[in-house]
Amino acid sequence: MRKLFAVAVGALVGAVALAQGPVARTEFEVASVKVSPPDLPNQPGDSCKGGPGTSDPGLFTCTGAPLAYLVIEAYKLQFYELVAPEWMIHGGSDGGYNIAARVPGSATRDEFRQMLQDLLAKRFQFTFHWGQKKYPEYVLGVGKSDTKMTPVPSGAAAQPKFWMDIVKGHVRLNFVNQPLSELSNVLSAFLTSPVVNETTGTEAYHFTLEFMPDDRWRGFPYLPKFGAADQDSPSLERAIKDQLGLTFEKRDGLLRVLVVDKVEKVPTQN
What is the DSSP string of 46-109? Predict the structure, then answer.
């Protein structure tokens, strides 16, 4: 009877396992994590590539990547939702890391984020808590008059794209065949506060936005200066009003943030 009972229990456990499907993966197959060499310049967040959903799903690599980028990817944050030491924001040899991690086959993006969380905890002794913070937020809205942009006809051949130029010390944002929601996304990524899009429209536009950044603009101290700064360039608010015919207003908000409690700058050995 005991043997029969054991067989029955084993069969039941096996059936449950089959019903649950494959166990979620939470670790990289192998991961190399090294501090960036001294001569490596500061790197932006896109110094990482690969992983699920990309053209190289089985290999995730970074060169001089800021540790903040890994935290943001691991926990699906915006930069302004992270409260962390300043060195974590920088890349290159000042808080940057070279990473090569083998991702198990067929891993999902959510499983990949779990793997990053595991890597942060084990290699950097990373701990944190969730908190709330009073935060200014900005609202992108429609002005009293019509916008100064002409919608791109539907079916236009131009592929949507965005890039940023630095011209005489000021910023130029270039948008091709993009909705205004993409403008709010870009501003949210660069400013230290969230940007809410209340323009409601879904039309796509070609447009540029030129302005002189201030200390709200992430990375402002590190922007390259090509010749003398253009002192006549408008503020971001003025540029949005005059060049696009939109409004950009500040209001108080309450934001959920990830607060770093502990993190080691030198990772444990591979």
Answer: GGEEESTTSS-TTEEEEEEEEHHHHHHHHTT--GGGEE--GGGT--TTTTEEEEEEEPPTT--H
What are the structure tokens assigned to 65, written together? 């990547």
Q: Identify the H or E element spanning 163.
A: strand 161-167
pTM score over 0.70: no
Distance between CA 169 and CA 100 in Å, rounded? 35
Strand order in the sheet with 82-83: 82-83, 246-262, 127-142, 195-197
**Using CA atoms, how far apart are residues 225 and 222, in angstroms rounded to an integer?**
9
**99 CB-side CA count, 13 A:** 31
The three-state DSSP-derived secondary structure of 173-224 is: EEEEEEEHHHHHHHHHHHECCCEEECCCCCCEEEEEEEECCCCCECCHHHCC
Per-residue tokens: 132: 């709330």
| Residue 207 identity | F
Q: At what angle do helices 67-74 and 109-124 cross, to 10 degrees?
A: 140
What digits encode the pLDDT tens for the residues 198-225?
A: 998 889 999 999 998 887 876 555 555 5
Instruction: Give me the residue spans of the domains in the chain.
Output: 24-124, 134-255
Q: What is the pLDDT of residue 112?
A: 97
